[in-house]
Amino acid sequence: MPKSQNINPKEVRKPQFIEFGKIPVNQYNKTIEEEKKNFSSEDFLRIYHDMVVIREFETMLNLIKTTNEYNGISYNHPGPAHLSIGQEASAVGMAYNLNIDDFIFGSHRSHGEILAKGLSSINKLDENNLYSIMSSFFGGSALKVVEKDFQGNITDLAKHFLLYGALAEIFARENGFNKGLGGSMHAFFTPFGIYPNNAIVGGSGDISVGAALYKKINRKPGIVVCNIGDASLGCGPVWEGITFATMDQYKTLWDGDYKGGLPLIFNFMNNLYGMGGQTMGETMGFNILARVGAGVNPEMMHAERIDGYNPLAVIDAFKRKKKLLGEKKGPVLLDTLTYRISGHSPSDASSYRSKDEIEAWQNEDSIVSFGNELVNAKIARQDQLEEIRHQTGELITHILKLTVDDNISPRLDLTSNPDLIGKMMFSNGSAERMEDRKPEVLLPLEENPRVKSLKSKERFYKDKEGKPVSKAKLFQLRDGIFESVIDRFYKDPTLAAWGEENRDWGGAFAVYRGLTEALPYHRLFNSPISEGAIVGTAIGYGMCGGRVIAEIMYCDFLGRSGDEVFNQLPKWQAMSGNLIKMPVVIRVSVGSKYGAQHSQDWSSITAHIPGLKVVFPATPYDAKGLMNTALQGTDPVIFFESQRLYDIGEMFHEAGVPEGYYEIPFGEPDIKRAGDDITILTIGATLYPAIKAAETLQQNYGMSAEVIDARTLVPFNYEPVIQSVKKTGRIVLTSDASSRGSFLKEIAQTITELAFDYLDAPPVVVGSRNWIIPAHEMEQFFFPQPDWIIDSIHERIVPLKGHKSKNDFSAAQSILLNKEGV
Ligand SMILES: Cc1ncc(C[n+]2csc(CCOP(=O)(O)OP(=O)(O)O)c2C)c(N)n1
Ligand SMILES: [Mg+2]
């Protein structure tokens, strides 16, 4: 809601009609004779060659999957192989004019695109560059394999390297492009501008938008192509990605030469089917996919349907669209019409389509047709084409032999190093900035109004006389996060932040108040209400090399970004074989007062997912120090903030919250109150009820409680907790997450295993009820209260003399509630 743009009722209430322009459908009509001025004979043959390479590669995989044999080589590949036989012209046409700086993203069916982009890159790179890429990639291990006994030039060698790296990846070999950890549906090779393919249909739909943002925000050359299937248009991330990519603000509000559209092409490889569902006529209503662009923005996304059975039509379209992107008129939507002759997977019986249909498309086979055209136009002879096919078959056979040989191409050695993959889950880097240049800011840090006002705040909750500081004068938890964030904006030029109401409003809970004054639009902006794309774009931005903070306004909305948080953000570092880093911090505010869909603590859910670091500070000192660590790191961090605590002052760190920079290492629980008789471990805001409970225990029952604040869920160092349990022999664990299946249960179980001999009673979990969260006025019946902690100690750990429980924490009640599922 920028004030610079007034919405005038007189204007917007005027009657008018929306006019849609024309969307070109298969309008390419050049003859090959006409194209002779754009392509040399060599170019034409290269196009043919690249299509043949893809066809043969996929045919080999099909035979391996269905007969366990290709050209006399036997192999069993149990994993996936979604083949693109029939779609070669679309892939080669797409890649033909792309440079190394142009990034492609893909889907589960992207072998062809990888090979096309790889071959196109090999053609564009000089031999020195090619050799240096190959020899530096994973220490040159794949190069060594293909180089042995090789005779020919570096360009040919690179072709071997490309095919070997891709196939070794598909067959999960260590020499694969991603050490065999990506596999068929996730393979990629960034040195050639090939970015991740994605097994989740539509997964690239928002990630690629983040890559385009990375290019735009950091002035990087090149465009981004998001290659996804036609059926993915039914997926949320794709629509959210399109919405995010077409926001008006790029053209209206971003400053100076940042003004203008994203350098991005959504390229729908439209083979007219999902797995078996027909998008045209059955599962979608667009009839012609390109129509979808019409409603999105006044430019209609420059949408076009192009004939993906003709490589020249695709090359022509990409050339024209690339020019548009160069003029900052993006993004573009392309409906690249194609057909997969192969089944969805080799086990597909094609029960959903007729033989006639398949035959009709086979009769128009793009490789045969294009070859015939080359012959008719006297660009090539049939025997030359035959020779290309023959040589390709030999090459693929050679590469297959190298790949399936366990001595030449072993898998990661998990026998002698069973923790290898575990060690790859996090990059654990420490980087003040992701790039070395001056950060763009609008005013010196000292002149920032909020920075100035924070100077006069009290950084501890009591003043020198021991009196509580008034709210107006108190340095609050939100201020701690702000100080950390603004500091990083002045250090790391790549840092950008987005989410709902991040600009102008200052973030829904005023954490970002003061940032709008400090930062140009391209570093801090409001996003659409697209939680999936808020996280998805952050992933794309991070994997390209930028640092980013994305915000989810309420934890409950995390559900909307489920795929991004569960499947994408945590996985790409390891699935890339550690080539990719993911310096992405997702700020998630945990609500209260707003009932069942605005108050849930889902920290446990995120902690369950391997590959995410999960942090939940409860004090301003911890919030600032932990955010500093998150922003110095290179791993994805889910940073939880409780809305109940935003106003709170520092009550534990007696020196107050330091003005300068400091880091608090992840994974170190902090003793907030020392004690000898019982340990209370807390996550997030339950620190405060636990402290109250500890005071009551002391006063009424002479029990001295040690309160430990977990601060981080993943990673987590158990040692200080075990140390405490060794002393106290008892532990209660409490957090606002619903208790069933919560992270507290995980900690309780691990403590039981690690410290059984020291425990006088089982660890007891006091979580929230397994209910909907009621209205604020009834919240005390849902969230753990101090008396819950005391009652549970009394009933489950040690009887407290003279204590009368208000709540039923008996074993019988626990059995009953579990029986009822509540
Ligand atoms: C989110 C998700 N839902 C379902 C699937 C299972 N699935 C894999 S491919 C596919 C069809 C995808 O069709 P389209 O996007 O047109 O790509 P194509 O397979 O035609 O290349 C389906 C349903 C999946 N991988 N991910
Ligand atoms: Mg499809």
List the helices and strands and how they pair.
Blueprint: H1 9-12, H2 32-35, H3 41-67, E1 69-70, E2 73-74, H4 88-96, E3 103-105, H5 111-124, H6 127-136, H7 141-147, H8 154-170, H9 204-217, E4 224-229, H10 236-245, H11 249-252, E5 264-270, E6 304-307, H12 311-326, E7 332-337, H13 355-363, H14 366-376, H15 382-404, H16 420-423, H17 449-455, H18 477-489, E8 496-499, H19 515-518, E9 524-526, H20 531-544, E10 548-552, H21 562-568, H22 572-575, E11 584-590, H23 603-607, E12 613-615, H24 620-632, E13 637-642, E14 670-673, E15 678-683, H25 687-701, E16 705-709, E17 712-714, H26 719-728, E18 731-738, H27 743-755, E19 764-768, H28 786-797, H29 811-820
Parallel strand pairs: 3-4, 4-5, 5-7, 6-7, 8-9, 8-10, 10-11, 11-13, 12-13, 15-16, 15-18, 18-19
Antiparallel strand pairs: 1-2, 12-17, 14-16
Helix pairs in contact: 3-4, 3-5, 3-14, 3-15, 4-5, 4-12, 5-8, 6-8, 7-8, 8-15, 9-10, 9-20, 10-20, 18-24, 20-21, 25-28
Thiamine diphosphate (TPP) binds at residues 107-109, 199-201, 229-232, 271, 273-275, 344.
Uncertain runs with pLDDT below 50, 5 residues or more? none
Question: What is the percentage of strand-forming residues?
Answer: 5-15%
- Work out the number of β strands: 19
- Let me know the average pLDDT: 97
Number of H/I helices = 29
Strand arrangement across the biggest beta sheet: 9-8-10-11-13-12-17
**Which cofactor or ligand species appear?**
thiamine diphosphate, magnesium ion
Distance between the termini: 43 Å
Q: How would a textbook summarize the main sheet?
A: 7 strands, mixed
State Rg.
30 Å
Percent of residues in helical segments?
25-40%
Shape: globular
User: Which structural class do the helices and strands define?
Assistant: alpha/beta
